[in-house]
Amino acid sequence: MAYPTIQEQEITIPAGAIELKASLTQADDVQGVVVFAHGSGGSRTSPRHRAVANHLQKAGLATLLVDLFSAAEECSDAQNGRLRFAIPLLTGRLVAAIDWLGGQPQLGQRPVGLFGASTGAAAALSAAALRSRSVRAVVCPGGRPDLAPGALSLVRCPVLMIVGGRDRFVLQRNRDAASQLLAPQALEVVRGASHLFEEPGSLEEVANLSRTWFQRHLGRH
Questions:
Q1: Candidate CATH numbers 2.60.40.2100, 3.40.50.1820, 1.10.760.10, 3.40.630.10; the one for domain 7-218
Q2: Per-residue burial over 162-189, b = 16 or more CB atoms within 10 Å of its CB, e = otherwise
Q3: Which of 5, 24, 91, 121 could serve as 140's disulfide partner, Cβ 3.0–4.6 Å?
Q4: What's the pTM value of the predicted model, to 2 decimals?
């Protein structure tokens, strides 16, 4: 199987008083772009997120992995864990990334998908509600959609929630959130997996489920 020629570049995205560091990877002709919203101490260099992004890239999707915190904020969050739960802050910066994409010549007309893990799921759903014309699909692996209760009924695009079978607390939070979503949705449980999908084959299943969801909903019609 021949894969598209993929190019990666490091960029900065203006977001109010700061600039967000991001990694943009794309081929010459893509069917959509997926923005990764990292939560709970994650960053654009996360091996797990890069593995999923690589899977999506080979399927013809561009990916934008964004650090939603500045370096100083990352240090602060590592010490007290507070900023990762600042959903309005995360949402605003994710919206800035979506708006930046809209102004890019090659990607501005492409549909956008959001991949939001952990607390990033709440930001992804909130951003999807605010940018409903751009965002066509959301995937939340190990996510905390319950942290964005006010946004759930406002989301209009299809939402896929993926949870490890052993991650019982988060699984219940996702089930509760699903009952509040009015948009098309699905909840996939990865058997034997914990919160970070570290068990053999678990992350690959997350990547496959995500690829199928984004290809279905970001594909050209």
A1: 3.40.50.1820
A2: bbbebbeebbebbeebeeebebebeebb
A3: 121
A4: 0.93
